[in-house]
Amino acid sequence: MMKKIKTFKAFESNYIHDLFKDSHAALNKSKLIPIKKVLDKKGFPTQQNIKDITDFVNLDPNYIYFDPNNSLYPYIYWKDFIYIEFFGFLSLEAAKMMMVDKRLEYQETHINKYLSEKDYESIFRLADKKIVIPMYIETYNDIPDDQKYEVFIELYMRSEFGFEMFDSDFLDKVFATRFKSSDWKKRMDKLHKIIKPDENGYIMAYRGEGVAEDILSWTLDKKIAKFFANRFGNNGRVIHDKVKVEYIMDYLTDRSESELLVKNPN
Fold first, then answer.
1. Residue 205 falls within a domain, yes or no?
2. pTM of the full predicted structure?
3. Buried-most residue among 65, 103, 175, 265 (CB within 10 A)?
4. Residue 14 belongs to some domain of the structure
5. Is the CB of residue 234 less than 8 Å from the CB of residue 13?
6. Which of 235, 255, 237, 214 is nearest to 21 (CA)?
7. Are residues 55 and 151 in the same domain?
8. Residue 230 structural domain
9. How many CA atoms lie within 13 A of 87 on its CB side?
């Protein structure tokens, strides 16, 4: 009996995690299927469905995709920073119900305004969390140098998954821009006031190993690590390690997590 209960709990944990990931995971455009490749196939929208939607609202069908990894929102429109999801089936009724015309107008108006002002911090605050990581990588060279790092921190705090898209060289480049941020300096000043490194310059930090995919985040708070270790009913573990202060890239407290971004924990 106990074995069955554990099996059910494991299934439930994985199910909740998968649903959460469907709703929050960063998108990899290479894994999306252009809608034109599946039109009129069994179980997929028809050409008439697409025509009805594009007659209703000015969506370029070249930017409509099928996401095989998302059971809740399998159809999306993604063009640059414009992102719209369709719940369930792709149809005119769904487009009207979800007010796609209004959402498109709102996004285009604001994003075009921010682009004209080169206000990338506002663009990334407005953009859907599923596209902020790939769009940051794609537009990195266009972002003004004095905004690069805080835009990264904004998308980092909003994102749950997708950090594997950042390779080591790219992260090195991003972290090198932190010195241009006055907010970063204030955060690090705050950290240095509360930590007491040992004689070799190390402090103790914690992280929860459960279903998390982010390898940068550590915390000063063991309770926070325990929360992430056991999130979604997962039976994870809390690990601890000595972190050299010079490897701490940032200290984030906006989520009350006493979070450390550590480029190299050893």
1. yes
2. 0.85
3. 65
4. yes
5. yes
6. 214
7. yes
8. 187-262
9. 8
